[in-house]
Amino acid sequence: MNALLPVAQLQDRALHFVESDGYERATSLGAFHLRHPGDFDFRAGVELARQYYLPADVGPDAAFRGYRTRDLSRSLLGYSRTGHDQDELLQIEANLWREYLPRDAAMLLWRMNDLSRAVLTDLFIRAGVAPRDIDTVAGGLSKNQALQYCIFNHYRPEADQPIGLTAHKDSGFITTLYTVEPGLESLHGQQWIPFDPLAGHFTVVLGHSLEILTARLKNPVTASYHRVRRMTKRSAATPDRFTFGVYIGPRWDQRLYQYDVAGQLSDVGTFVDFQRAKAAEMEYEFHPRVDSALRQSTDSPCTDRGLSGLSSPTLRRTITLPPMPDEHEASRLYPAWDMVRARFECDALRFDDAHDFDRALNDGFFLLKIPDGVALDASDRFVRHCFEPRVDGELARYTGYRDCIVPGDYQGYFDREHDQWENFYVERNNWPMLPDQVAQAGEAMAEIGIGILRATLGHLGISAAEWDTLTGGLTAKRGHQMLAFNHFRSGKRVRGSKFHRDSGWVTVLRSTTPGLLAYIDGGLRCINPEPGYFVINFGSALEVLTEHLPHPVRANIHGVAETIRCAARHDRLSYVVFLDSDLHGDLYQYHDGVPVKVQTVKEFATQEVSRTYDSDGHLL
Ligand SMILES: [Fe+2]
Ligand SMILES: [Fe+2]
Hints:
Blueprint: E1 7-11, E2 14-17, H1 22-29, E3 31-35, H2 43-51, E4 78-81, E5 87-93, H3 97-100, H4 103-127, H5 134-137, E6 147-155, E7 165-169, E8 174-179, E9 184-188, E10 191-194, E11 201-206, H6 208-214, E12 225-228, E13 242-249, E14 255-259, E15 265-270, H7 271-282, H8 288-299, H9 327-333, E16 341-345, E17 348-351, H10 356-363, E18 365-369, H11 377-385, E19 412-415, E20 421-427, H12 436-459, H13 464-470, E21 480-488, E22 497-500, E23 506-511, E24 516-520, E25 523-526, E26 533-538, H14 540-546, E27 557-560, E28 572-580, E29 586-591, E30 594-600, H15 601-612
Parallel strand pairs: 1-3, 16-18
Antiparallel strand pairs: 1-2, 3-11, 4-5, 5-6, 6-13, 7-12, 8-11, 8-13, 9-10, 9-12, 14-15, 16-17, 18-26, 19-20, 20-21, 21-28, 22-27, 23-26, 23-28, 24-25, 24-27, 29-30
Helix pairs in contact: 2-4, 11-12
Bound molecules: fe (ii) ion (2 copies).
One fe (ii) ion binds near residues 168, 170 and 226.
Keywords: Iron, Metal-binding
Protein name: Fe2OG dioxygenase domain-containing protein
GO molecular function, one term: metal ion binding
């Protein structure tokens, strides 16, 4: 039993220590106990901690096992074992939890992360950090852009090492640990003292970056210099020692800061150099993928390479994609994706099967039956002719759009240099310039897309009172509604279009020929049109909004194969209605049940567009 560490709980996002000197003792010892919130369910975390190192297997525990050998290549940390102590580690950055870890474990970690962020913010303020400096010193903590990862430690009693875990100070600001078994001890003066667990509480360990930041302030924080005792061999009935937790520290690509005595921030070097020195001190190999990511990020000015946090709150990690095939290779090599189907019945979106809505949100695509009364003859005709030179007569209003000036941002004709496709974009305000029946088709497609968005937000449990704000007016039929016509010039021997995510909420696609490919579950799949159906896909605005909700929506990555045509066959054509927030609005993301502004729509659109049309075919 240990009553050494002070005890606190978080209430209204502030720490309350049980004893009056609790905070002082916490900052002197470098740790404290934090009461578990009553509604946290730790089971998935405990299961993962006890099984992740076991060999891969089939069966109900499959998702919890096999992490020693699993492909975790998008993580810069991943699985590691040093050879000098008994500990083996699984460390995964927060933005990969949903992808790499069992769903319930990811959910728990996000809750622990949000708790930990609130605790750290309060500790910063108590230590005298100016609120305006927090995002500078902690690399965008308020937007989850700091270095935030989980740690699952397994102490291997069979490993013949002198110690459980080599003595060290945690490199970051804090680590919030779920721990049930003694073994952790910390150096205080000349003495190692136990930091035994307290039932119903986390052990929060204060880290080296916090110590450095506050070292010259009036109330400096001491980081705990700790180790884990060697574990002896156990009977089969006694499980191995484990702990798991969440870490928050500065980003790999940022500077490390310290306040001077006058309370001014000064920079004391790079965080990565500091980390390298610490790894050397522990005789650990410094994470090889971090080094290579840092090198690449200096070589390439344009993309984040996973140096968590992200340089923009909405910029998702770079994904390396297979090369874009031509359409013959595509149909030969990649299976068609079996999309779920839905229809509108009396204005309600109905899927064929009750679980299909969730599958559609997960896949990012589904097929929607074209409602009776939606006439597409005119718009089908328009896309066949709009890129042709203007002619008189019957086709006069259907031709000549390459030279057409359309008022407003990002509209009119686009000749995509690196792709087969050329596009004609026109926003709803300008639809009167189109033939009436084409505008009517656009209106019908927009209504369908908005209906799908409303059904989706309702399905996700988002309060209808918030929809108008969150979607920049789109759910109330305002927002930004763009008709886009696409022509794939088969005479150009390049990809049809680059792999990309649509930036908005929902896209309604009219296509009648194969060629669309999506990146689903780590592989390419053909997204083939079905007569009588639109292809619906979800965009990045919805993915960003729902990233931390229990049912996040996937904005699928998709592109078009190189179109190959003999002279007798018409080039590939398609058209869509893109549904975006108003360009003057903001993009939101849910955190702890509250929508938080993360970026302006304009900044987001600029970032996504530049990635969609550049020449880099393999990276997104
Ligand atoms: Fe540690
Ligand atoms: Fe797209």
